[in-house]
């Protein structure tokens, strides 16, 4: 075992806050992973912690969190939407909307889809007449 793995065995002096067993389960869920080195597990846990810390700090500084002295979900979702670095999280941290607004959006998409289908049929009919 490496030096990092040896440090992990001490329960009091934990160098990572995330549960290593959970991270191991997530890593093993990938079909390409057959075994996980203790150092790789530790480094993945530490990198994840640092990433979450960076995301939270950035969202707090650039959101409304300073006004409320709190980090909110909307701060995180705004960061995911607006900051290029975090845009890959936009699907995971979508902006919250009211259910009524969502239902209206779905209804509008359904109506637009039905109109679009009718338009396609007309174009196909026109082509058939020309041939």
From TrEMBL:
Residue span of region Disordered: 110-131
Major subcellular site: nucleus
Domain called Transcription factor CBF/NF-Y/archaeal histone: residue spans: 17-78
GO cellular component terms listed in the entry, alphabetical order: CHRAC
GO molecular function: DNA binding; nucleotidyltransferase activity; protein heterodimerization activity
CDD domains tied to this protein: HFD_CHRAC1-like
Alphabetic keyword roster: Acetylation, Coiled coil, DNA-binding, Nucleotidyltransferase, Nucleus, Phosphoprotein, Transferase
SUPFAM superfamilies, per database record: Histone-fold (SSF47113)
Entries under InterPro entries matching the protein: CBFA_NFYB_domain (IPR003958), Histone-fold (IPR009072), Transcr_DNA_Rep_Reg (IPR050568)
Acidic residues bias: start-end ranges: 115-131
Summary of the function given for this chain in its UniProt record: Forms a complex with DNA polymerase epsilon subunit POLE3 and binds naked DNA, which is then incorporated into chromatin, aided by the nucleosome remodeling activity of ISWI/SNF2H and ACF1. Does not enhance nucleosome sliding activity of the ACF-5 ISWI chromatin remodeling complex.
Name this polypeptide is given: Chromatin accessibility complex protein 1
Organism: Psilopogon haemacephalus
Originating gene: Chrac1
């Amino acid at each position: 075992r490496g030096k990092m793995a040896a440090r992990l065995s001490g329960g009091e002096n934990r160098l990572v806050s995330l549960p290593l067993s959970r991270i191991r389960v997530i890593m093993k869920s990938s079909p390409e992973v057959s075994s996980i080195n203790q150092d790789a597990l530790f480094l993945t846990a530490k990198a994840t912690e640092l990433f979450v810390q960076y995301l939270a700090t950035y969202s707090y500084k650039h959101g409304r969190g300073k006004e409320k002295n709190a980090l909110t979900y909307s701060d995180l979702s705004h960061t995911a939407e607006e900051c290029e670095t975090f845009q890959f999280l936009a699907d995971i941290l979508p902006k919250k909307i009211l259910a009524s607004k969502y239902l209206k959006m779905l209804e509008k998409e359904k109506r637009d889809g039905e109109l679009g289908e009718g338009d396609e049929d007309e174009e196909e009919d026109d082509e058939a007449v020309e041939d």
